């Protein structure tokens, strides 16, 4: 039976993370679930109701459960009167009770986080700092410290904040903060312990518009318009993510040692560093801790100093040493090898976003040449090298680290030097206002390995990652091994990476299916897609807005001029396996190459096109991708294989199984898409066979396992590097072409190319499932 007083029961049954509301009181907990259904519980309550409301509000929760002798009193700072429920009634209906609490855990503008952010925005309107709001931050630090200190005798050095000139009527802000919301008053220690991350991420936003108008009562406006962060490829680490990474790291760390050094080379506002201190305190660690944090943002280092110094002064005292540094680029610094734990969420800056100097630095961090590496990969590589024996790495990383061929060398080094304990694929819904595909990694530098890693896979939907990480905590607390649902999977594979060397994290069911496919590959019943097809990328015009026109404009052209245009296959051109191209692309080529070889010929043959292109002559002449500058009207990359009109299996660039079709006569030009060119001569029936196969649910499952999923749904990148390894039947296998299964799929392929696959999906799916078995039956 559930025991409401047993804090571990909340972890086992609901995956909640218990953390002391205040470190000095071990009877009062915040039970945390990533902002969803969080609440406070007090196992030894007094009679100070105002304190209950203040604690719940300051911890960014709604409900405060005071557990008395035989009943629970629920205080909610939004409500006037508390509720009283018998403990037996709660324990006998614990799921319904927890769901009831969850219904009251909704966001309001009066929550502590928006309340403090509102004050900070007023400071920004006063200081009018667009980028790094140092003065506004120091005003906010001063305002917060006023909850515990007299402003007239404030020790600025003690709190690691600058002595700024306070604006007129600053005491008005002090009063507003101290008054809180109704009976809920702010508690500084609780706010900084539980809410510092989401509050101080506000400092990394760039202000576009200030509002200096005062309201009716003369108050400063809190209205500002912000845009991207100060450095757009660095993203605030959500508390539930930092909490889970730190939790997994500390499970592997020997806490009996006298000293621990913890390092974050991209510390931001100290989300990881604050989290590890909270968890170490709750685990009653008694040794000395050295915290090292670097960042290139002045605001980030300023915030980290304030938060960590508050922790030191109020909790750790001489047991905590703090080394925070403002650096130009952490990648050029010496990380040392004394880091017992490295925690980080490095900037996810793509190669295209890096300047020349940054590219050189990133490349210098990698031991082998990597094509266009992400900046985060360089951080990961340096972390591997900076770990001593038994050192632990816990980090947020781009999913490409596990899946991209470019990083195979780094994965090989990782496999040799660090044993993974935990790896997770969380998807594209982790960072606010960013669609970065996010994964987690926790590993340790060990000479001997005894533990099988645990993998966590999330369906790429909003909110699933929080649910999955909560479930991970729940099953670990309950001693369970795994959990497999449609939304997420948590399991321990036989090996990681798998026997084929793949690091990609998939669901447990997909992993089992993949094992069966590998057996079929070994037996020769299936082959890799790259042994059947070469996946060819479409043309690159060098100016789509110039060279591509709509059907209305095309119809206005003369018959002669129309022959220099072809229907264009882009991401909108295929619907349910049927070609429905709406645009036309300039394509002045025939079997021998470029047809129009002079500007005069262009003017005479294509007068309308000439008038359109000549306006952009300078731009077109200066395309770096253009082979011959003299032919400025040519496409940047016309693709030699497109010159000959022939039957082609085609697809969009990104899509689903309904994004394949057949261009029977080769009349289309592929722009944003791919051609799937057979490596050996095909019969036309073979094209229809594979078209039907590629439109099946079985192939969709293969895409989910092997290809890169895009944000926002079950869409995939069809690039060769993601699809080459997909196992498919070989049409040349003995007996396949003579089977009824083949003949029916060919007929269905013809039907869907003409009518769309919607009407035939069910039968195609049935046949494809049979086809991915291990035997072909001629009588099928």
Structure description:
The chain is an alpha+beta fold and 780 residues long. The chain folds into 4 domains: 7-103, 3-Layer(aba) Sandwich (Trna Endonuclease, Chain: A, domain 1), CATH 3.40.1350; 112-229, no CATH class; 239-505, Rossmann fold (3-Layer(aba) Sandwich); 534-590 and 640-771, Adenine-n6-DNA-methyltransferase TaqI, Chain A, domain 2 (Alpha-Beta Complex), CATH 3.90.220. Strand 10, helix 11 (298-316) and strand 11 form a beta-alpha-beta unit. It contains 28 helices and 35 strands. The strands form 9 sheets. A 10-stranded mixed sheet has the order 11-10-9-12-13-15-14-16-18-17, sandwiched between helices. This is SAM-dependent methyltransferase. Belongs to the N(4)/N(6)-methyltransferase family. Keywords: Methyltransferase, Restriction system, S-adenosyl-L-methionine, Transferase. Residues 213-442 form the DNA methylase adenine-specific domain. One of its GO terms (molecular function) is methyltransferase activity.
Task: Give descriptors for this structure.
single chain, 4 domains, 20% strand, 780 residues, globular, 35 strands, Rossmann fold, 10-stranded mixed β-sheet, alpha+beta, Trna Endonuclease, Chain: A, domain 1, disordered C terminus
